[in-house]
Every structure is written in structure tokens, then in C-alpha cells.
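Newbie here. two chains, one complex. Structure please?
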Amino acid sequence: MTMTDVAFYLLSGFAIWTGWRVFRVDSMIRATFLLLLSFTSVGLIGLLLSASYLGAATIFMMAVEMMVMGLFMVMFMMNPAGLNPMMMVHQHRLSIVAGLLIFAAMTGAVLLTPLPSDPVAADRPVLRDLGIELLGDSMLIFETAGVTLLATMLGAVVLSSRRGRFGPTDAGSVPPGLSAGGPPAGRQPKGGGSHGGHGGHGGHGGQGGKGAHDGHGGGGSHGGHGKNGGDGNHGGHGG
Amino acid sequence: MSLIVGLPALLALLLIGLWAAAALDTAIGRLIVGRPVGMAATDPLRAVVADYLRQRTDTEAPDHLNWLLAPGYYFLLAVVGLALVPFAPDQSLIALDTSVVLWGAAEAVVVVAVFLHGWSPNAPFPLIGAYRYVAIGLPVMLLSMFVLIAASIPAQSLDLRAVVESQRGLWNVIRQPLGLPLFLAVVMSLTLRGPFDYADSADLAGGTSAEDGGPRWIAWQTARAAMLVAACAIAATAFLGGYLGPVLPGWLWLSLKTLAVMVAVVLLTHLVPRMPVAQMLTLIWIVLLPIAFLDLLIAGLGAL
């Protein structure tokens, strides 16, 4: 085995392991970047197999794509940090059956196809050939796909940016009222900017009895009373 | 170039580069605000020791693994970038005919590394810094793509070694005058500096590194400085003719040019103010990207 073989097997193993971990972690961000690690290993295998452009481009594209995908998932799932634990797999039975079928089909395709053994000559201008292919015979296909994807992206932005959750964003969207035609639900911003409710809270739990209790409040001036606060002498000590 | 000789040499150069970056940053920063320069050469080393002895803090339920790995990724990407730089004809540690594309890939992963560094502490300021950086870092990478493709057009190759050779007659900085200024913006974004520092800035109490203390802080700042060295070396290679130059040996020319780019970047860091995120996004998409297209057009017309 040459160094290339060793690197190939190591990277393949890493790609499979990280690919499996994608479904075992409990956070969207972790899953996203494990998938990126898996793709990066595949890209590095591409570099080993003289596909120097496709390998580097795979890493490049996947890094950007996974970054954007992770961010959008977090935004749409309203799990702001992506750190909150959540289940990353759903519909277990269906997924297991579908996964096994696809695995069997793909493994069968790989094993049953007579794969050519056609090593690339060292002096072959691989990069140039790829460029000629992309902008020669296959140009129509790639350009069609490119323009279609661009149109899709523009469409998605147009559709998603104006119509917000509670109406068009440019009309000042507010949540609907709790009763029909009532004022919008949720807390209304107050003028003056005063923050109520952040005074010092002396912390008396529910076990007030006789005797002197010291409320160890932060910056406030009153001691808080638990519901069983009895007839003792409650002193709130402001910070 | 064999790995056994090349890698230690590269790491040694990187160490010198790290020290130069830290010393330059300290000295120029003090000069600009009018303080005495003092011991700018040794103060960064003293700061490292002081930070190492500082109390180590932790946040509630962080992702320890990614917090640990993020500076490592960042540093590794800097090493990869430096390994792509040729320091003599046909001599670079990673001999790849698509080194420009691989550097682009490294730039893309930098955004991921910075995001992970801000995400993993599970704390508000680092997270805001991480999100803000992604919004700015991704479009800035587009600039880098166009500018570097323009630089490789005269070489008719995506290989940095060929890009240097194509500058024997005329450096790219003169042939494509828009390229280097745009790439300096990219360097500042990659290293979280000055006008492009939306990740670690003071307005977020340190942003993604707000919760870093002690060794974590040292690791992240070291990785940042390493990326500065790598990105400046790439800039010197793509636009200033890399190792080309009379009399002196090639690697020395490369080092001097890298240092010159570094001085420019550090000056810009301390002299140019930072805009609000929305304004910066507008600037990137409406002003800088069309300028990058123009740069590509100039390169294309020049090649015709």
C-alpha cells in the first residue's frame, strides 16, 4: 500500500463515520458541520484521485452551502442557537426501510457495474479537459441548470421576504388579536423606556416563620415575601 | 519539495511571521493613537504569558469539542494557505495545479471556523458575533473569488506557481490595479480586523471571543495572526510577484513583500472605521462586487 492508499482508506472511513454521526447528534448545527466534514473528506479523496479541481471545488461549495444551510435551518426552526437538544431523525420505520432499500440499490449498482480500470496519464491536462467539457458539449445543460437555479433563488427570496408570518412585512406586520378584531397579541412596546420589574428582589422562599429574616436583595430596597411569610421581622437588605 | 524539510521550515517562518504580526499590530496601534511605542516587540509575548496565567472561565453548557477545535481549524487553514505559496520557482509545499481554488476553499472554511468559535460557547455575544460574521464573510469571499480568478487569467492557470511566473514582465498589482485593494479587504475579513471585524469587535465586548479566557484566548489570537501571515503571503504571491526580485534570494523577497502587505493591512485596521452591518452589506454588494467585476473585465481584456 502506498501513502495514497492509506490516505484514501483513512479519509473514506472518516467520511463514513462523520456521515453516520450526522444522524446521531442532537443539534442542527452539529449535524450540519459533521456533514461538511464528511463532504470535505470526499473532496480530499478527489484531490488524491487527480480530480484536483472537483475536489477543491467540493470543499469550497460545501463549506458555503453548509454554512448557509445551517443558518437557515436555525432561523426557520426558531431554535436560535441550535444548541438546544433536539431529535434529528423522524418517521423511524419509514426511514429505516427507505435507507435499507437505497443502500441495497446503490451497493448493488456499485458491485454489479463493470467499473473501468483506466488510470489517468500523469501528463494529461485534466483541468483543461474539464473546462472544455463544461463550456463545450455540456454547455447547454450547465447553463440551463444555472439559470434555472438562479431563477429559483430569486423566486424564493421574493416569496419569502415580503410575506411574513403575520402579513406583508412592508405593511408593518403585527400578530393577530386574542379575540376577533381585538388588539394584537403579545407585549406592546411602552414609551419612556423604563424597565419595570427589575428592581431588587429579596429572596424569601415559602418558609417564613418566626424570627428575623434577611432578604439578600441585589440593588433593590424591599424584601420579597414568600406566601407563607409569617409574622417575623423581615428586613430587606438592599445591595 | 519534501515534507520532512518543508514543513519545519514553513512552521519556523510562520512563527517569525506570528511574532512580526503581533509586534506590528502593537507598534502601529500605539503610534496611531499617539502613545509611546515602548517595547512593542516583546509586549505581545508578555501578554501571552499574562493571559496564560489568567483565570480560566467556562460558560453554561457549551459545546466543548467545537470550542476547542475552532482555533485549531483556523490555524490549520492558515498553514494550508501558507503551504500553497511558492517560495522559489516550482517550489511549494503542496504542489497542486488548482492551488487558487484550494485557497478559496480554505477561505470558505474560515467562515465556518469563526462561526463555530462563536456558536460553541453558548453565550449571547459570541453568537451574535458569529451570525454577523457569516453575513459579512460570505459576500466578501465572492470578492476574493473574482479577484483571484482575475489574477490567474494572465497565467492561464489556477496554479499559484504559474501565477507568479506570469508576473515576470509586469506585476499583477500594476496590470490589474483594482485587485490588491479589494484583496486587502478580503484579508481584513479573513483575519477579523478593523473595518471588517464583525466577529470579534469591541462593540460586542469581544464578540466570538468574549467568553475566551486564558489558553483559549491565546489559541484564538494566535490562529488569527497565523491567518494574517498566510493571507498576506497569498496577496504578495498573487499581486506582488511573490518570490520574483533581483539580487536577494526568492524566499527573502517573498517575506519582504508579505511584510509590506502586512503593514498595509495593520495600518488599515487601525485607521479605517467600522460601519454598521447593513451599510457594510450594501457597500459590499452594491459597490465592491461591481468593482470586482470590473477587475475581472480588465484582466479579460488584457488577456485578449
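Moderator note: Chain B has a mean pLDDT of 92. Chain B touches chain A at residues 61, 63, 66, 96-98, 101-102, 104-105, 108-109, 111-112, 115-116, 119, 122, 127, 131, 134, 138, 141, 158 (CB under 8 Å). Thread marked as resolved.
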